[in-house]
UniProtKB/TrEMBL annotation, chain A:
Organism: Lacticaseibacillus chiayiensis
Keywords from the UniProt entry: Sugar transport, Transferase, Transport
InterPro entries: PTS_EIIB-like_sf, PTS_EIIB_2/3
GO molecular function, one term: protein-N(PI)-phosphohistidine-sugar phosphotransferase activity
Name under which the protein is recorded: PTS galactitol transporter subunit IIB
Chain ranges of the Phosphotransferase system EIIB component type 2/3 domain: 5-61
GO terms of biological process kind: phosphoenolpyruvate-dependent sugar phosphotransferase system
Pfam families on file: PTS_IIB (PF02302)
Keyword Transferase: yes
UniProtKB/TrEMBL annotation, chain B:
Protein name: PTS galactitol transporter subunit IIA
UniProt-listed InterPro entries: PTrfase/Anion_transptr, PTS_EIIA_type-2_dom, PTS_SugarTrans_NitroReg
Domain of life of the organism encoding this protein: Bacteria
PANTHER family membership: PHOSPHOTRANSFERASE SYSTEM MANNITOL_FRUCTOSE-SPECIFIC IIA DOMAIN CONTAINING PROTEIN (PTHR47738:SF3), PTS SYSTEM FRUCTOSE-LIKE EIIA COMPONENT-RELATED (PTHR47738)
One protein family per Pfam: PTS_EIIA_2
Length: 95, 154
């Protein structure tokens, strides 16, 4: 079964696109099947509980209903990107 | 899909004089409108978006901001790049209480609902490339900026 990751940014079209694509290619290399869905930050609270993991580029302080949350900005800046990808891998590898 | 992005020299604004980030964003957005790439209302959307979800990216200097707005307000996908005569303050996308001195603004006019992954990847490559960021920030004129960007976005 594929892991489902919700990727959110301000309007769900720009930075989440890059982050989703980086996550997908990293996990594909690791042999982890994953589906990503992009959304707006403001739509996260209503959607997040159907996912295995939430990754956002912008600041998110809302409720995740127990869904793990990883900050995805390092995948844009490159600073700490590898750590972030490893954390994502650890979170979804058994889903 | 190939990157269907033409770098327009008229959208490259070296040494932009701006009093603050809103002034810089307004000037860049006004120019995009004047050159016919975006619709009326784009500037307003950019300014509102910046207030809600700031676009400064935390990195070593030179620091980059990547403002963008709703795709419906864009006529043709492109980027406009401004280097600032004096840094202006942007809030950090990842931590809105954190303020960054931004040296380069890459305004993305994205006209497709699902973004344009190739263009965005290249912008991210620029952001992650220390040497290229410095070269862009230090470009003397729009020809210099054009050379750097045309090579990157080719």
């Amino acid at each position: 079964m594929a892991a489902h990751i919700l990727v959110a940014c301000g309007n769900g079209i720009a930075t989440s696109t890059v982050v989703a694509s980086k996550i997908k290619s990293f996990l594909a290399e690791k042999g982890v099947d994953v589906e990503t869905t992009q959304t707006k930050l403001m739509e996260v609270p209503g959607k997040v509980e159907n996912y295995d993991l939430l990754v956002t580029t912008g600041q998110f302080e809302g409720q995740t209903h127990g869904v793990p949350y990883i900050h995805g900005l390092p995948l844009l800046t490159g600073v700490g990107a590898q750590d972030t990808l490893n954390k994502i891998y650890e979170t979804v590898k058994d889903k | 899909m190939a990157v269907d992005l033409v770098i327009d020299k008229k959208l490259l604004l070296p040494h932009l004089e701006a009093t603050d980030n809103l002034d810089a964003l307004s000037q860049i957005a006004d120019n995009l409108y004047a050159q016919g790439y975006v619709k009326e209302g784009y500037k307003q959307a950019i300014l509102e978006r910046e207030a809600t979800y700031p676009t400064g990216l935390p990195s070593p200097r030179p620091t980059v901001a990547i403002p963008h707005a709703n795709y419906r307000l864009v006529k043709q996908t492109t980027i406009s790049v401004a280097t600032l005569a004096h840094p202006v303050k942007f809030h950090d996308m990842g931590d809105v209480n954190h303020v960054l001195d931004v040296d380069v603004i890459i305004m993305m006019a994205i006209g497709e609902p699902h973004g344009q992954v190739e263009m965005l990847q290249k912008i991210v490559d620029v952001i992650q490339d220390d040497q290229l960021r410095h070269a862009i920030a230090d470009a003397k004129d729009s020809d210099g900026l054009y050379q750097l960007l045309a090579k990157t976005f080719k």
